[in-house]
Amino acid sequence: MTVHSDDSAQSDQPVAHAVDVVVVGYGPVGQLLAVLLAEKGHEVAVVERWPSAYPLPRAVAFDGEAARILADAGVSDCFARIGESSRDYTVTNLAGDVLLRHDADDTYRNGWPDSTSMYQPGLEAALTERGAGLPGLRLFRDHEAVLLEQEGDHVTVEAVEAATGRRRRFTAGWVLGCDGANSFVRASVKPQFTDYGLNHEWLVCDVVLHEERSFEHNNLQLADPARPRVAVSAGPGHRRWEFMRMPQDDPGTFNSAEKAWELLELFDVHPGNASLDRFTSYTFQARLADRWRSGRVLIAGDAAHLMPPFAGQGMCSGLRDAANLAWKLDLVLRGVAGDGLLDTYALERGPHVKKSITMSVNLGKVICMTDTGAAADRDTVMLASRKRGMGAHRPQTVLERLKDGVVFRDTDGGPVGQAGHLTPQGRVAGARGTGRFDEVVGTGFVLLTAQNPAADTEGVLDDDHRTFLRELGARTVRVLPAGTPAGALGADNVVDVDQVYLPYLAEQSATVALVRPDFYLFGAVEHLSGLPALVESLRQQTAAAVVTG
Q1: Of 12, 124, 284, 406, which residue has the fewest beta carbons closer than 10 angstroms?
Q2: Which tens digit of pLDDT belongs to each residue from 277-290?
């Protein structure tokens, strides 16, 4: 990292730093973006207004796709320590009748559990430790961004250190705003917001129990019209209870320890058997920005979208933002792609986030219903639905196909086959041992094939296409059937231990598939003769004309 002047506090001039990227905000989304970029060799400065990490949880779960993304950032070793299977997501009425239930699959599509209940401070500590080990990442805590200016090929950010009043000036190619719902960076983007409604105030209580307790429902949403409430795991040794503010509650005393203990008594939780780590009231929102980029400034996470907690997708959506943006910005920084590629970031992420917000709002409408007559009708309909067997099916998923953006398209402009869908992950055996595909093969662009990569895929590509794939850092991997002897493995071969990849290719009638670094399928072709068109399509899309508006 280049520092253009020393850190002397005596100078009246701001301390100057020149970096590739400035990340403003160091919650999970900012941490992940900084790590993903720094591990690619880019110089990243992080400006964080708080002097230390927030010591208490906010989010309490991440899903399988988010787990895969976090594993790519090198922090999966912490999962067993800070997380546990979410086990179930259950909505009941006051009588205990189950209106909706989803049992989490611990070995689902992403190679990680469908849902992991986690202690957020532990996850953030792991991300902080990972970032501290990357030489290109420098963290400036206790610094508040106070100025942001774009000019030509760079952005200037000035930040003030609260403890000393010292000013720092950062010059960077790009600025990423991960600074939350009250984002400073967002003012530079100037988005309009769509508000999806459902604004209710809730009291959140984070609790450590002093006695062993078993819970029939590990994650319970209690749809009681007299007091909607929530009781969920917040990771090993931690639980969270949430209570909706009702008309009879005094707004002036609702956010108090006395009120928290009063409401916790509904679950037989009291000072004699528990400690109250945190209580806070908040009004959740459902809002989506229509613009995530302005020139060299982009926003992610809560700076771009907010949603109620009922689908558990707030933090997960931000982590998906980071995964999508990181690989695109990496290509731009390395000169492999034009910066018009970054316009596909919001194009791809916006519809996915909209779906997550809509799901969260719809679940909230079920749980937050306070009219007793309407709640009785709701119970009748949902119980009848479960009786007919509809409750036995998997619930609506937050997964959303990429219909726009960087995907392989037909002549009509639509995605070809399964292009734009999230790819699966299973265990494979390779030169680096047996484990999840991402761990054994590595991440980034992957050409997945059932053919001999050296003899076949290389043979149909010209020098320009091979050079382009090398610039991308793409790996070509041949998948062999389960049971193939280890002696048959070469450096580019893996055995399909869980029988995931060969069936995946077969269901698409595909010989080769090209997977993006965020694990979404760019496209697949039936015959090797179609591989040049597949690679050329990606080359043209990543070489998008420079757009700085």
Answers
A1: 12
A2: 999 999 999 999 99
Query: Residue 429 is which amino acid?
Result: A
Look at residue 184 and tell me whether its pLDDT is greater than 70.
yes
Give the pLDDT confidence score for residue 60 in this predicted structure.
96
Residues 340, 446: one domain? Answer: no
User: Rounded to an integer, what distance in angstroms lies between the CA atom of residue 265 and that of residue 164?
Assistant: 46
Single out the residue in 331, 363, 395 at which a domain terminates: 363
233 alpha-carbon distance from chain centroid: 20
Q: pLDDT tens across 390-436, in order? A: 554 445 677 889 999 999 999 888 999 999 999 999 999 998 889 99
Look at the pTM and tell me if it is higher than 0.90: yes
CATH code of 336's domain: 3.50.50.60
3-state secondary structure (DSSP) of residue 194: strand
**Range of the structural domain that residue 320 is part of:** 2-81+113-191+290-363
The radius of gyration computed from the CA coordinates of the chain, to the nearest angstrom, equals 25
Q: Say how far apart CA 488 and CA 91 lie, in whole Å.
A: 51
- What pLDDT score does 1 carry? 32
Q: If DSSP codes are grouped into helix, strand and coil, which group holds residue 427?
A: strand
CATH code assigned at 519: 3.40.30
Sign, CA dihedral 118-123-126-131, equals positive
State which of 338, 363, 388 marks the end of a domain: 363
Dihedral sign computed on CA atoms, order 265, 269, 273, 275 = negative
User: What are the structure tokens assigned to 204, written together?
Assistant: 């959140």
Lowest average pLDDT, out of 66-80, 265-279, 531-545, goes to 531-545
Q: Indicate the number of domains in the chain.
A: 2
Taking the mean position of all CA atoms in its chain, how far away is CA 328? Answer: 16
**Kind and range of the H or E element at 440?**
helix 437-441
Q: Write the DSSP symbol of residue 531.
A: H
- Cα dist. 200→60, 61, 279, 331 in Å? 19, 21, 16, 42
Q: What is the pLDDT of residues 474-519, one digit of tens each?
A: 999 999 999 998 676 777 899 999 999 999 999 999 999 999 999 9
Claim to verify: residue 344 and residue 485 sit in the same structural domain:
no
Q: What is the distance between the alpha carbons of residues 515 and 364, in angstroms, rounded to a whole number?
A: 35
Q: Does 484 fall in a domain?
A: yes
CA atoms within 13 A on the CB side of 333: 20
**380 Cβ neighbours under 8 A, 6+ residues apart:** none
| Cα–Cα distance for residue pair 147/512, rounded to 1 Å | 48
Residue 470 is inside which H or E element, if any? helix 463-472
DSSP β-bridge partners for residue 480: 495
**End-to-end alpha-carbon separation of the chain, Å?**
29
Question: Is residue 225 within 8 Å of residue 390, measured between CB atoms?
Answer: no
